[in-house]
Amino acid sequence: MKILPLIAPLLLLANGFAFAADDQSVEIRSDVKVGKRYVYEMTMDQAMKTQMADAAVDQKVGMKMKYASSIRKTAEGKKEMATKYLDASMFMDMKVNGEKMDIGLDDALAALKGKEFKAILGEGDRIEKISGFDEFMKTFADDPASKEMMSQIMSEENMKQMFNQGTLATFPKKPVTPNESWDFKMDVPLGAMGKGAMKGKYTYKGMEAKGGAPCAKIKMLGNLTIELGSAADGKAENEEMKQVLEMMKKMDMKITSSKIEGMIHFDPGIGAVRAMTTNTAFTMSMKNPADDSRISIPITQKIKMNLSAFEDLKEK
User: Fold this and answer.
1) pLDDT in tens, 272-307
2) Of the four listed, 57, 125, 180, 214, which is most buried by Cβ atoms within 10 Å?
Protein backbone atom coordinates (compact mmCIF):
# COMPACT_ATOMS: atom_id res chain seq x y z
CA MET A 1 0.00 0.00 0.00
CA LYS A 2 1.59 3.27 -1.15
CA ILE A 3 0.32 6.59 0.25
CA LEU A 4 0.58 10.26 -0.88
CA PRO A 5 0.84 12.83 1.94
CA LEU A 6 -1.52 15.76 2.32
CA ILE A 7 0.95 18.60 1.84
CA ALA A 8 -1.43 21.54 2.18
CA PRO A 9 -2.83 22.39 5.64
CA LEU A 10 -6.44 21.45 6.14
CA LEU A 11 -7.68 25.06 5.76
CA LEU A 12 -5.99 25.33 2.35
CA LEU A 13 -7.12 21.95 1.07
CA ALA A 14 -9.79 23.38 -1.23
CA ASN A 15 -7.30 25.82 -2.76
CA GLY A 16 -4.85 23.00 -3.25
CA PHE A 17 -7.40 21.04 -5.27
CA ALA A 18 -8.19 24.10 -7.38
CA PHE A 19 -4.51 24.44 -8.18
CA ALA A 20 -4.33 20.78 -9.15
CA ALA A 21 -7.30 21.26 -11.46
CA ASP A 22 -5.50 24.14 -13.17
CA ASP A 23 -2.05 22.69 -13.83
CA GLN A 24 -2.89 18.98 -13.39
CA SER A 25 0.44 18.36 -11.62
CA VAL A 26 0.63 16.02 -8.66
CA GLU A 27 3.24 14.75 -6.23
CA ILE A 28 3.15 10.99 -5.61
CA ARG A 29 5.11 9.60 -2.70
CA SER A 30 4.54 7.22 0.19
CA ASP A 31 3.50 8.60 3.59
CA VAL A 32 0.84 6.55 5.39
CA LYS A 33 -1.22 8.45 7.95
CA VAL A 34 -0.83 7.62 11.63
CA GLY A 35 -4.22 7.12 13.29
CA LYS A 36 -5.92 5.97 10.10
CA ARG A 37 -7.32 2.65 8.89
CA TYR A 38 -7.22 1.64 5.21
CA VAL A 39 -9.62 -1.12 4.13
CA TYR A 40 -9.07 -2.72 0.73
CA GLU A 41 -10.98 -5.33 -1.25
CA MET A 42 -9.19 -7.28 -3.95
CA THR A 43 -10.25 -9.86 -6.54
CA MET A 44 -8.20 -11.94 -8.97
CA ASP A 45 -9.56 -14.03 -11.84
CA GLN A 46 -7.32 -16.18 -14.04
CA ALA A 47 -8.18 -18.47 -16.95
CA MET A 48 -6.27 -20.81 -19.26
CA LYS A 49 -7.10 -23.34 -21.96
CA THR A 50 -4.70 -25.71 -23.66
CA GLN A 51 -4.37 -29.09 -25.37
CA MET A 52 -1.84 -31.53 -23.89
CA ALA A 53 -1.65 -34.69 -25.99
CA ASP A 54 -5.20 -36.09 -25.87
CA ALA A 55 -6.23 -33.94 -22.90
CA ALA A 56 -8.16 -30.68 -23.33
CA VAL A 57 -7.50 -28.65 -20.19
CA ASP A 58 -9.75 -25.76 -19.11
CA GLN A 59 -8.81 -24.09 -15.82
CA LYS A 60 -10.20 -21.08 -13.92
CA VAL A 61 -8.83 -19.71 -10.65
CA GLY A 62 -10.41 -17.00 -8.53
CA MET A 63 -9.39 -15.26 -5.33
CA LYS A 64 -11.03 -12.65 -3.09
CA MET A 65 -9.48 -10.79 -0.17
CA LYS A 66 -10.51 -8.02 2.17
CA TYR A 67 -7.96 -6.60 4.58
CA ALA A 68 -7.48 -3.60 6.83
CA SER A 69 -4.19 -1.86 7.56
CA SER A 70 -4.13 0.28 10.71
CA ILE A 71 -1.32 2.79 11.17
CA ARG A 72 0.01 3.67 14.62
CA LYS A 73 3.18 5.20 16.06
CA THR A 74 5.51 3.17 18.27
CA ALA A 75 7.14 4.40 21.48
CA GLU A 76 10.30 4.90 19.42
CA GLY A 77 8.45 7.21 17.02
CA LYS A 78 8.29 4.79 14.09
CA LYS A 79 5.20 3.85 12.14
CA GLU A 80 3.64 0.46 12.78
CA MET A 81 1.28 -1.09 10.21
CA ALA A 82 -1.06 -3.78 11.57
CA THR A 83 -2.72 -5.66 8.70
CA LYS A 84 -5.70 -7.89 9.44
CA TYR A 85 -7.43 -10.16 6.93
CA LEU A 86 -11.16 -9.60 7.22
CA ASP A 87 -12.03 -12.19 4.58
CA ALA A 88 -10.20 -14.47 2.14
CA SER A 89 -11.35 -17.14 -0.27
CA MET A 90 -10.10 -19.03 -3.31
CA PHE A 91 -11.55 -21.41 -5.86
CA MET A 92 -10.10 -23.52 -8.65
CA ASP A 93 -12.26 -25.00 -11.40
CA MET A 94 -10.32 -27.42 -13.58
CA LYS A 95 -11.75 -29.63 -16.30
CA VAL A 96 -9.91 -32.23 -18.37
CA ASN A 97 -11.84 -33.34 -21.47
CA GLY A 98 -14.93 -31.83 -19.88
CA GLU A 99 -14.59 -33.77 -16.63
CA LYS A 100 -14.19 -31.73 -13.45
CA MET A 101 -11.07 -32.47 -11.40
CA ASP A 102 -10.88 -32.01 -7.62
CA ILE A 103 -7.67 -30.08 -6.93
CA GLY A 104 -8.40 -29.56 -3.24
CA LEU A 105 -7.35 -25.89 -3.04
CA ASP A 106 -10.76 -24.21 -2.73
CA ASP A 107 -10.23 -23.55 0.98
CA ALA A 108 -6.52 -22.74 0.75
CA LEU A 109 -7.00 -19.12 1.91
CA ALA A 110 -9.95 -19.53 4.28
CA ALA A 111 -7.64 -19.84 7.30
CA LEU A 112 -6.39 -16.27 6.73
CA LYS A 113 -9.68 -14.75 7.95
CA GLY A 114 -9.15 -12.94 11.23
CA LYS A 115 -5.36 -13.29 11.16
CA GLU A 116 -3.05 -10.31 11.61
CA PHE A 117 0.60 -9.42 11.32
CA LYS A 118 2.46 -6.22 12.16
CA ALA A 119 5.24 -4.40 10.34
CA ILE A 120 7.57 -1.56 11.29
CA LEU A 121 7.94 1.03 8.53
CA GLY A 122 11.12 2.93 7.81
CA GLU A 123 12.12 5.67 5.38
CA GLY A 124 9.67 6.02 2.52
CA ASP A 125 7.34 3.65 4.39
CA ARG A 126 9.46 0.66 3.39
CA ILE A 127 8.93 -2.33 5.66
CA GLU A 128 11.93 -2.85 7.93
CA LYS A 129 10.65 -5.68 10.08
CA ILE A 130 7.64 -7.98 10.35
CA SER A 131 6.58 -9.22 13.78
CA GLY A 132 4.42 -12.26 14.43
CA PHE A 133 5.22 -13.87 11.09
CA ASP A 134 5.85 -17.37 12.51
CA GLU A 135 2.52 -17.21 14.34
CA PHE A 136 0.88 -16.00 11.15
CA MET A 137 2.15 -19.02 9.19
CA LYS A 138 0.76 -21.39 11.84
CA THR A 139 -2.58 -20.45 10.29
CA PHE A 140 -1.97 -23.24 7.77
CA ALA A 141 -0.70 -25.87 10.21
CA ASP A 142 -3.83 -28.04 9.89
CA ASP A 143 -3.63 -28.14 6.10
CA PRO A 144 -0.18 -29.38 4.96
CA ALA A 145 -0.88 -28.73 1.26
CA SER A 146 -1.97 -25.13 1.89
CA LYS A 147 0.88 -24.54 4.34
CA GLU A 148 3.48 -25.76 1.85
CA MET A 149 2.03 -23.73 -1.02
CA MET A 150 1.84 -20.54 1.06
CA SER A 151 5.31 -21.04 2.55
CA GLN A 152 6.79 -21.08 -0.95
CA ILE A 153 5.21 -17.71 -1.76
CA MET A 154 4.76 -15.95 1.59
CA SER A 155 8.18 -16.10 3.21
CA GLU A 156 8.90 -13.17 5.51
CA GLU A 157 11.20 -11.60 2.93
CA ASN A 158 8.62 -12.05 0.16
CA MET A 159 5.92 -10.44 2.28
CA LYS A 160 8.18 -7.45 2.90
CA GLN A 161 8.71 -7.17 -0.82
CA MET A 162 5.03 -7.46 -1.71
CA PHE A 163 3.93 -4.78 0.76
CA ASN A 164 6.86 -2.51 -0.12
CA GLN A 165 5.86 -2.67 -3.76
CA GLY A 166 2.23 -1.97 -2.96
CA THR A 167 0.15 -0.78 -5.88
CA LEU A 168 2.99 1.33 -7.31
CA ALA A 169 6.34 -0.38 -7.67
CA THR A 170 8.22 2.92 -7.89
CA PHE A 171 7.38 6.57 -7.33
CA PRO A 172 8.35 9.61 -9.40
CA LYS A 173 11.14 11.69 -7.88
CA LYS A 174 9.29 14.96 -8.49
CA PRO A 175 5.76 16.23 -9.14
CA VAL A 176 4.47 14.95 -12.48
CA THR A 177 2.40 16.61 -15.19
CA PRO A 178 0.02 14.94 -17.68
CA ASN A 179 1.65 12.38 -20.00
CA GLU A 180 4.84 12.33 -17.95
CA SER A 181 6.17 8.79 -17.41
CA TRP A 182 8.54 6.96 -15.08
CA ASP A 183 9.92 3.42 -15.19
CA PHE A 184 9.11 0.60 -12.81
CA LYS A 185 10.63 -2.80 -12.18
CA MET A 186 9.84 -5.29 -9.44
CA ASP A 187 10.43 -8.91 -8.60
CA VAL A 188 7.50 -11.33 -8.39
CA PRO A 189 7.90 -13.42 -5.21
CA LEU A 190 7.58 -17.14 -6.02
CA GLY A 191 9.82 -18.69 -3.38
CA ALA A 192 11.26 -22.08 -4.26
CA MET A 193 8.89 -22.44 -7.21
CA GLY A 194 10.92 -20.11 -9.42
CA LYS A 195 11.50 -16.44 -10.12
CA GLY A 196 9.65 -13.64 -11.86
CA ALA A 197 9.80 -9.95 -12.63
CA MET A 198 7.60 -7.15 -13.93
CA LYS A 199 8.85 -4.05 -15.67
CA GLY A 200 7.38 -1.20 -17.66
CA LYS A 201 6.21 2.40 -17.38
CA TYR A 202 3.70 4.42 -15.40
CA THR A 203 2.19 7.47 -17.11
CA TYR A 204 0.27 10.20 -15.30
CA LYS A 205 -2.79 11.04 -17.44
CA GLY A 206 -4.20 13.94 -15.41
CA MET A 207 -6.90 14.31 -12.76
CA GLU A 208 -10.17 12.38 -13.00
CA ALA A 209 -13.11 11.89 -10.65
CA LYS A 210 -13.34 8.42 -9.08
CA GLY A 211 -15.81 7.50 -6.37
CA GLY A 212 -16.79 11.14 -6.07
CA ALA A 213 -13.20 12.30 -5.45
CA PRO A 214 -10.56 13.97 -7.68
CA CYS A 215 -7.87 11.38 -8.40
CA ALA A 216 -4.58 11.21 -10.28
CA LYS A 217 -5.13 8.79 -13.15
CA ILE A 218 -2.04 6.65 -13.76
CA LYS A 219 -1.72 4.29 -16.72
CA MET A 220 0.42 1.18 -16.36
CA LEU A 221 1.99 -0.64 -19.31
CA GLY A 222 4.56 -3.41 -19.00
CA ASN A 223 5.46 -7.06 -19.34
CA LEU A 224 6.00 -10.10 -17.17
CA THR A 225 8.77 -12.70 -17.09
CA ILE A 226 8.58 -15.92 -15.08
CA GLU A 227 10.74 -19.02 -14.93
CA LEU A 228 9.01 -21.77 -13.01
CA GLY A 229 11.16 -24.72 -12.11
CA SER A 230 14.40 -23.69 -13.78
CA ALA A 231 15.11 -21.29 -10.91
CA ALA A 232 13.65 -23.49 -8.17
CA ASP A 233 16.09 -24.46 -5.45
CA GLY A 234 14.20 -27.61 -4.48
CA LYS A 235 13.62 -26.61 -0.86
CA ALA A 236 10.37 -28.14 0.36
CA GLU A 237 9.03 -29.36 3.67
CA ASN A 238 7.34 -32.52 2.39
CA GLU A 239 7.80 -35.16 -0.28
CA GLU A 240 4.81 -34.03 -2.33
CA MET A 241 6.21 -30.54 -2.84
CA LYS A 242 9.65 -31.96 -3.64
CA GLN A 243 8.08 -34.00 -6.40
CA VAL A 244 6.21 -30.97 -7.70
CA LEU A 245 9.40 -28.87 -7.81
CA GLU A 246 11.28 -31.64 -9.56
CA MET A 247 8.53 -31.95 -12.16
CA MET A 248 8.58 -28.18 -12.70
CA LYS A 249 12.31 -28.26 -13.32
CA LYS A 250 11.91 -30.94 -15.97
CA MET A 251 9.07 -29.06 -17.67
CA ASP A 252 11.16 -25.84 -17.89
CA MET A 253 8.17 -23.49 -17.70
CA LYS A 254 8.76 -19.97 -19.05
CA ILE A 255 6.78 -17.00 -20.33
CA THR A 256 7.42 -16.37 -24.03
CA SER A 257 5.18 -13.32 -24.50
CA SER A 258 3.24 -11.03 -22.18
CA LYS A 259 1.45 -7.71 -21.85
CA ILE A 260 0.26 -5.91 -18.73
CA GLU A 261 -2.16 -3.00 -18.93
CA GLY A 262 -3.61 -1.24 -15.94
CA MET A 263 -5.14 1.91 -14.53
CA ILE A 264 -4.57 3.31 -11.04
CA HIS A 265 -6.60 6.10 -9.45
CA PHE A 266 -4.70 7.90 -6.71
CA ASP A 267 -6.74 10.16 -4.43
CA PRO A 268 -4.67 13.09 -3.03
CA GLY A 269 -7.51 13.99 -0.69
CA ILE A 270 -7.05 10.81 1.36
CA GLY A 271 -3.43 10.18 0.38
CA ALA A 272 -4.01 6.71 -1.05
CA VAL A 273 -4.83 4.65 -4.10
CA ARG A 274 -8.61 4.54 -4.40
CA ALA A 275 -8.85 1.96 -7.21
CA MET A 276 -6.66 -0.20 -9.41
CA THR A 277 -7.35 -2.58 -12.29
CA THR A 278 -4.74 -4.62 -14.17
CA ASN A 279 -5.23 -6.96 -17.12
CA THR A 280 -2.43 -9.39 -17.94
CA ALA A 281 -2.22 -11.71 -20.94
CA PHE A 282 0.75 -14.02 -21.34
CA THR A 283 1.79 -17.27 -23.00
CA MET A 284 3.49 -19.97 -20.94
CA SER A 285 5.83 -22.36 -22.72
CA MET A 286 6.83 -25.72 -21.24
CA LYS A 287 8.20 -29.10 -22.23
CA ASN A 288 5.73 -31.87 -23.01
CA PRO A 289 6.46 -34.67 -20.50
CA ALA A 290 5.66 -37.24 -23.19
CA ASP A 291 8.16 -36.29 -25.89
CA ASP A 292 10.03 -33.11 -24.79
CA SER A 293 8.32 -31.01 -27.46
CA ARG A 294 7.19 -27.56 -26.26
CA ILE A 295 3.60 -26.65 -25.46
CA SER A 296 2.24 -23.09 -25.47
CA ILE A 297 -0.44 -22.16 -22.93
CA PRO A 298 -2.26 -18.79 -23.23
CA ILE A 299 -3.30 -17.34 -19.84
CA THR A 300 -5.31 -14.26 -18.90
CA GLN A 301 -5.49 -12.63 -15.49
CA LYS A 302 -7.49 -9.68 -14.14
CA ILE A 303 -6.87 -8.05 -10.76
CA LYS A 304 -9.11 -5.38 -9.22
CA MET A 305 -8.46 -3.53 -5.98
CA ASN A 306 -10.65 -0.89 -4.37
CA LEU A 307 -10.42 1.15 -1.20
CA SER A 308 -13.70 0.49 0.58
CA ALA A 309 -13.01 2.56 3.71
CA PHE A 310 -10.58 5.22 4.96
CA GLU A 311 -11.36 6.03 8.57
CA ASP A 312 -10.08 7.08 11.96
CA LEU A 313 -8.81 4.33 14.21
CA LYS A 314 -11.19 3.48 17.03
CA GLU A 315 -8.89 2.51 19.84
CA LYS A 316 -10.37 0.43 22.67
Assistant:
1) 788 999 999 999 888 877 777 888 889 999 999 999
2) 125
